[in-house]
Automatic annotation (TrEMBL):
It comes from the Bacteria. Keywords: Signal. This is Sporulation stage II protein D amidase enhancer LytB N-terminal domain-containing protein. InterPro entries: SpoIID/LytB_N (IPR013693). Residues 119-160 form the Sporulation stage II protein D amidase enhancer LytB N-terminal domain. Pfam families: SpoIID. Residues 1-22 form the signal peptide.
């Protein structure tokens, strides 16, 4: 009996929270910020697969550089910053971050901030782009379509609450 009540409560909760979320356009179409804690390091190699702007300067596709920490600041091109942002010129641009053997491509804006004695990359990305990446990363496409849809709903709700 308790299981049935709990199951009914969860069903009602998720149904209404999803419906409310789906019709709230302010949340539905917003960009989200994702701290890439698995990419934190004292030195991050960057490769641009598209054009990016930072501090009014255009960095062209194919540019590579290192972002590191020095004296508690972000070090880039022999200059120290509290934080530094790279904004893509168009939506097809990606930025590859390389830390040790980890290599990941990211769309959207990337900010680099100091967290403790490390550099934390923060990815600002449209929620739909985020969901495309996170569902594919967390589940194989061999899962049933309904399972992938459920994962997308769960990921959207999780992202909206953070």
């Amino acid at each position: 009996m308790i299981r049935r009540i709990a199951a009914m409560f969860l069903l009602i909760f998720f149904t209404f929270s999803t419906i409310t979320f789906a019709f709230n356009e302010d949340v539905y179409y917003n960009d989200i910020k994702v701290g890439l804690e698995n990419m934190m390091s004292n030195s991050i190699n960057v490769e641009l697969n598209g054009d990016y702007i930072s501090g009014g300067v255009l960095y062209k596709k194919g540019t590579s550089f290192v972002i590191s920490i020095l004296n508690g600041k972000v070090s880039f091109n022999n200059t120290l910053y509290d934080n530094i942002s790279f904004t893509p010129v168009d939506n097809s641009s990606t930025m590859r971050l390389i830390v040790g053997i980890k290599r990941y491509n990211f769309k959207g804006q990337l900010d680099f901030v100091v967290k403790g004695d490390m550099i934390l990359p923060i990815n600002t990305i449209n929620i739909e782009e985020y969901l495309n990446g996170v569902v594919g990363y967390e589940m194989s496409n061999s899962y049933p379509l309904e399972a992938l849809k459920a994962q997308a709903v769960a990921a959207r709700n999780y992202a909206s609450l953070r």
